[in-house]
Task: inverse folding
């Protein structure tokens, strides 16, 4: 426990030992999601066809591939932070916390990697003839 | 860490009186979880299928356009708008506004009703288009 300033006394406290960082990052990614997912929902709604050719052609544009990669990063960071709060609130045993933390990180990092790699593969490989 | 049974537990769902503010709060968690799991897996599957080729994508489309696929899609649409509206509510609460009882109650109700209205509008349009074709 620090003896000086207010910030010195609260540093390292909280369930994650990172003070307000978790809270702030969840707000930043929420703002990112608001922008990017709104764009995504409107775009999907406006696409004439959701068939293979139509979707691959759409994703292969840089103006779609880049926002999609950013969306994946923002959404998967946000869901990782959010589900961590659920776990902290509802899982009370230490072993359970370790298990769910590992599973959550596997899902968030693995899922985001799969999605981003797929977007880039479509974007770089171009539209099949 | 083992719980100290001499200390009280914080009030739990079963002993709260239901009201709009707590409903929108627990729905924020529930819809967030639904979006994170079902929405996340659907999003990954959609992209991986598109990256793998026409056959994998055809399998995805077959499931996505089945009755179960539509059920999940409608559920995710509602979850998205409910989570988005209550997320916007959180932004307002974060700056210290909207805590007066009546205001808080009003915007809690607006979030939940708004999500249902937007979901019906979107899927009404989609099903009307499908019926016309």
Result:
């Amino acid at each position: 426990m620090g003896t000086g300033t207010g910030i010195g006394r609260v540093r390292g406290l909280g369930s994650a030992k990172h003070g307000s960082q978790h809270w702030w990052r969840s707000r930043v990614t929420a703002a990112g999601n608001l922008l990017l997912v709104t764009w995504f929902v409107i775009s999907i709604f406006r696409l004439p066809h959701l068939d293979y050719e139509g979707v691959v052609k759409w994703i292969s544009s840089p103006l779609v591939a880049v926002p999609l990669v950013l969306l994946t990063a923002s959404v998967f960071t946000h869901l990782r932070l959010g589900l961590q709060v659920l776990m902290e609130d509802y899982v009370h045993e230490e072993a359970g916390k370790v298990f769910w933390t590992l599973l959550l990180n596997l899902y968030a990092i693995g899922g985001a990697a799969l999605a981003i790699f797929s977007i880039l593969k479509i974007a770089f490989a171009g539209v099949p003839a | 860490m083992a719980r100290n049974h001499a200390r009280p537990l914080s009030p739990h769902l079963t002993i709260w009186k239901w009201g709009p503010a707590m409903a929108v709060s627990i729905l924020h968690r529930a819809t967030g979880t639904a979006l994170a799991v079902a929405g996340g897996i659907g999003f990954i599957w959609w992209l991986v299928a598109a990256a793998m080729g026409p056959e994998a994508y055809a399998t995805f489309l077959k499931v996505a356009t089945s009755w179960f696929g539509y059920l999940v899609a409608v559920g995710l649409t509602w979850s998205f708008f409910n989570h988005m509206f209550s997320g916007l509510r959180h932004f307002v609460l974060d700056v210290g506004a909207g805590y007066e009882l009546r205001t808080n109650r009003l915007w809690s109700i607006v979030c939940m009703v708004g999500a249902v209205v937007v979901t019906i509008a979107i899927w009404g349009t989609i099903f009307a288009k499908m019926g016309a074709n």
